[in-house]
Amino acid sequence: MVVQMIPMLCIYPLLKRTTRWPQIWLGFTINIGYVWSWLSIGDLSLFSFPLYTNLYMMGALWCWTMVYDTIYGCQDEEDDMTIGVRSTPMSIGSVIPASIFFAVVMVGLVFAAGVTSFHRETYFVFCIGGSSVFFIWKFATLDLNSEHSCWSFFIHNAFYLGFIVYVGLLVDYIRIIVGWY
């Protein structure tokens, strides 16, 4: 699967020279592993709940990439303009409202995935509550004029938000294995 991602990853830098929306491609490229994993083990029937669940999760992952990579791009905005590289932050102007929109959609899609896959309270507390608190904290403390703040937002998405969602899935899985209903 990783080998198949290489051409997709090679296209991304070229898109930064030809379009103002390279993050759209990056969202698909970075998260394609999720799709391949699902296709290798999942139920592919059109109207099954796993299909909808996985479409919701893929949409959530794409929105998440749009959030963190758009903020990440803000730290390079001046340099990008100087050398002619295009990016989403330069295209949308007001980055915060657009990023908040994608964050809200991401949380909503993770919620929808939880509902369609019959997760219980533990999933929603960690994944939805934790993600919401995380985004409120990060957007409240974000300074787009500070490279450090943009970098912190990016890194915390990887290490904190990813971990929060992972813990929510893990705790809910353990709940099922142990038989806590």
From TrEMBL:
Locations listed in the record: Membrane
One GO BP: ubiquinone biosynthetic process
Keywords, in A-Z order: Membrane, Transferase, Transmembrane, Transmembrane helix
Signal peptide: none
Segments crossing the lipid bilayer: 21-39, 51-71, 92-116, 122-141, 153-178
Topology class, membrane: Multi-pass membrane protein
GO cellular component: mitochondrial inner membrane
Gene Ontology terms for molecular function: transferase activity, transferring alkyl or aryl (other than methyl) groups
Superkingdom: Eukaryota
Family: Belongs to the UbiA prenyltransferase family.
Protein known as: UbiA prenyltransferase
